[in-house]
Structure formats: C-alpha cells, structure tokens
Design brief:
Strands 1-3-2-4-6-5-10-11-9-7-8 form an 11-stranded mixed beta sheet, with helices on both faces. The protein has 16 helices and 11 strands. The model has no long low-confidence stretch (mean pLDDT 94). The longest helix is centred in the N-terminal third of the chain and has 22 residues. α3 packs parallel to α4, α5 packs antiparallel against α15 and α7 packs across α15. It has a single domain, classed as Amidase signature (AS) enzymes. The protein starts with 12 loop residues before the first helix and ends with a helix. It is of the alpha/beta class.
Length: 442
C-alpha cells in the first residue's frame, strides 16, 4: 500500500492555500466513481482568516446554510420548521475553514450501511463492492478519498463511527450536548450528536476545539479493554483491534480488562425505544404523506407503536444507566476500548433490501457496539488499526467519560504518531489521487 497525503498540519501556509484552491476540482473528479457529494459550494470569496487556515471541509446534508436547505438524503428539501443557519457551519466558517460542499447520506439518517433508495449507495474508496457505512456515508467517503480534510456528520447510533471503520478514517462522536445541533435535521433528539470525520486525529484536533470549547484536557491514564466484545468479534477484526491496543499501551497508557457485553445488551431496549419512537415523531409528516421509500416507512412506523409513557421512561433512565455503567464497567479507567464493528465491512449486496443476498441481521450488527454509547451520552473516537483479510480497513473505538473528548482525540493522535494504518491511499481511488498529486507538484 502507498502512503497518502501528509496530514494537513504538516503543510505550510502556501501549500495549504494551493490545496484548498484545488480540492473542489479534485472532489468533482471523484464524483462519477464515489457519488459522495449531493451539492458543491460555488464560492467566489476566499475563506475568512482564522485558525483553520482554509482547511477544506464538507458537511453532511442535514445542515441549513445561507445557500442551501438540506435534503436529508431525500430528493427534495426537508420540511423543516424554525429554520436557522447551522451553528456548526458558522463556527467552522468564521474560523477560516473552506466549505467544499454537502455530502450524501442515507435517507433521514436512519440506516447504518449507506443504502439510499433515492440516490443509491455512496462508493467506498477502498472497494466499491463494499459499503461505506452510514448514515454519514458521503462524509466518510469524501474524507477517505482526500476530497476534504474534515467532514461534519451526525451520530445517533453510530453514524460517524461506522463509516470510520468502513472507510478507514477517524471519527469523533462528542459528549451529548457538547456540540450545538441548532440548524441541523434531527433524527432522535435524545441521542443525536454532531461530530467530525477526518483522515487522522491530528487533522480533526483544531476543528474539534472550535466546535467544543471544553476546559477539560486531563489525559486518559488507564484504558479498560472490553475482552468479551473482542472475543465475539470476527477473527480479522479482533486481530487488528489487539494490534491497536498494543500501540495504545506503547503510548504509556495502563491497560485493564473488563467484560461488558451483558451491560451493553441491557442498554439496547432503551436505545431502540428512544430511537424508534423519536424518529417516528420527528419525521411523521413525510412518513404519513407517502413520500418515503416503503422500507424506510415500515421502519419508521414501528416507532408509532411506542406510547409516550414508554418513551419517557427510557429517556428518564439515561442518568442512572450512565452512572451505573461508569461504576461497574469503567471503574478506575478513564476510557474503555472495543471494536467499532464486530464484523468485517459487508458487501453492498448484503445491505440492499432489493438484493437476494440481503441480510437484515447484518444491519443490526453494524451498530452492535456503537449505539449504547449514544444512550450513555459519552464521547467516543474511532480510528483505523489495520486491515482485514479482504484488505478492508478495521477501526477500534475508545469510549471516554463525559467531557473527555479532547483527551480521547489526543490519545488517538498519539497512537497515529506511532502507526500509519490511517495514512494509506484507498485502492479504489489510488489512480486519481496519484494523478492529482502529480498535477499539484507541477
């Protein structure tokens, strides 16, 4: 495998300006192959001066901007009320970032593989036969291909971390409520978070600090490995994750061991109650109006069978469940580590309801180890730790205590300083990346 571009932080100001000016053309060149974007910005003014220094970024198609209403993976703009420009876009723009465009996603962000009945599946830059992960599929693909340095996405049950695994990039799912959601389409407000995908943790550090200005920067002193989750993972996943855990230990982190599958499984009923009930209530208008795909409509309607009292009980359980998880699973550890996915990245056909190879259990497995984190409201960072036996990337995730976001990102950056799993050019776009590099050097 060939090393890809250097980290954004390693370029000088002149090189950053050249890359920022040309990245839109590069993203457009990749579109026939990846279909990662649904729209591009046509800016005539240069980015504002700021700490992000013209960093190219993309935004998932859930954000209201001055130039565009989001479609949320549908064919028409969303019927949003109380419309206001997304706070996160303003924060990045005012810090000098260069918004390239808006990325494709699954319909209403309610699908974990990347499948979209309206627009089709986004291409995975590693291999077009495999899913990119959802629902932030376009953001993951755009970052992995080098179309942008960072991309905004949302995570309600794993929608940043799943694409990070499938596309071989780094994802930050923030502490619940840490990053403002104003101006973004909601799916399940009790679980929704807005976060960032980037090729490396160092590339996302500045943007993350713009989006979440926390004062807590205490390092992670001890990490507990969730052994039974590792043991349940497919062998290539477990092997790669153990290699990543070895590098975490090399960073001077004390490693402990826990079993947590029973505790994670106990959280699932609350997760599904909240996600299904809130999604149905949030998107009732298009659901009952008959404008949605039949499969999506069927999934949404499940939430209408959940009454308000049952929903309220699951929502109110969150603080107690989080405290119990910290007490019994985290204990003296500052974070826990487990696979992002228990399975290898599936083929597109396995996740396409129209295919004879479709397997509904695969969709369930995609968020097996991610959705519990949203119920707890804890931060998590997922990052590449190797490749499986089909040359597809594998990611591990570190889940921290509330407000420890920047410490998790710093730990991921330290691991990536000692490894280069994140730094490879995906095989499915290597020819276009090589050609672009040659042009930039001329």
């Amino acid at each position: 495998m060939t090393l890809r571009f250097r980290n954004w932080t390693e370029f000088d100001a002149a090189a950053r300006a050249r890359i920022s000016a040309s990245v839109g053309d590069f993203a457009r060149r990749l579109e026939p192959r990846l279909k990662a974007f649904v729209a591009f910005e046509n800016k005539t003014n240069p980015p504002a001066h700021g700490v992000l220094d013209a960093m190219p970024y993309a935004a998932k198609d859930i954000f209201v901007s001055a130039t565009r209403m989001p479609h949320g993976g549908l064919s028409q703009p969303l019927p949003m009320t109380n419309v206001q420009a997304a706070t996160v876009l303003d924060l990045l723009d005012h810090a000098g970032a260069n918004r390239v465009g808006y990325t494709a996603m699954t319909e209403l962000a309610y699908e974990p593989s990347g499948y979209n009945a309206v627009h089709g599946c986004v291409g995975n830059p590693w291999n077009l036969d495999f899913i990119p992960g959802g629902s932030s599929s376009g953001s993951g693909s755009a970052v992995a291909s080098g179309s942008v340095v960072v991309a905004l996405g949302s995570d309600t049950g794993g929608s940043l971390r799943i694409p990070a695994h499938c596309c071989g990039v780094t994802a930050w799912k923030p502490t619940y409520g840490a990053v403002p959601v104003a101006g973004a389409m909601s799916l399940a407000p009790t679980l929704d978070t807005i976060g960032v995908l980037a090729r490396s943790a160092s590339d996302m550090t500045a943007a993350a600090r713009i989006l979440f200005t926390a004062n807590q920067f205490d390092p992670i002193g001890k990490v507990a490995v969730i052994d039974d989750a590792l043991n349940l993972a497919e062998a290539p996943i477990a092997k790669a994750c153990r290699n990543g855990i070895d590098v975490i230990a090399e960073c001077g982190i004390e490693i402990g061991h826990r079993d947590a599958v029973a505790a994670i499984d106990a959280i699932d009923p609350h997760v599904f109650t909240i996600m299904q009930a809130e999604a149905a209530r949030t998107h009732r208008i298009p659901m009952v109006g008959g404008s949605l795909d039949a499969v999506l409509t069927k999934r949404l309607k499940k939430g209408l069978a959940i009454d308000d009292e049952t929903l309220a009980a699951s929502v109110s359980s969150r603080p107690e469940v989080a405290i119990d998880f910290l007490s019994h699973i985290f204990r003296d550890a500052g974070a826990i580590v487990l696979p992002t996915l228990p399975i290898r990245t599936p083929r597109v056909s396995e996740c396409d309801p129209r295919s004879s190879a479709f397997n509904a259990k695969t969709l369930y497995q995609l968020s097996r180890w991610t959705r519990f984190v949203n119920l707890l409201g804890f931060p998590a960072v997922a990052f590449p730790v190797g490749f499986d036996d089909r040359a597809m990337p594998v990611a591990v995730q570190i889940v921290g205590k509330p407000q420890s976001d920047h410490a998790l990102i710093a730990l991921a950056a330290a691991v990536q300083d000692r490894s280069h799993w994140y730094a490879h050019i995906p095989a499915g776009v290597s020819d276009l990346v090589a050609a672009s590099n040659e042009e930039r050097c001329q």
